[in-house]
Amino acid sequence: QVRLVESGGGLVQPGGSLRLSCAASGSGATIYVMGWYRRAPGKEREFVANAATGGSTNYGDSVKGRFSISMDNAKNTVYLQMNSLKPEDTADYFCYTRVRGVSYWGQGTLVTVSQ
Hints:
4-stranded antiparallel β-sheet
């Protein structure tokens, strides 16, 4: 069983920045990939970004050039640096990972971009 704990959400003005963190615990196996999805009110879940050991990263089209993901393998922690935030980035952000073929999800952290 893997437990994911997210932190760093909150209220920010348009154009501002936030940094989300997600720490994984409870796995005896190596974690190779961690990432983020988000769900805005009334919308489908949307892929945000993921990172893998070795440094490869992937981003959703709507966040490319504004968000940056990084992974600390020693701490089993993934970070999402969000810059130039827009009101349409408002959503619950969910961390995920996949271990031995099983997907695990965090409980989510709310990001609100508003004046």
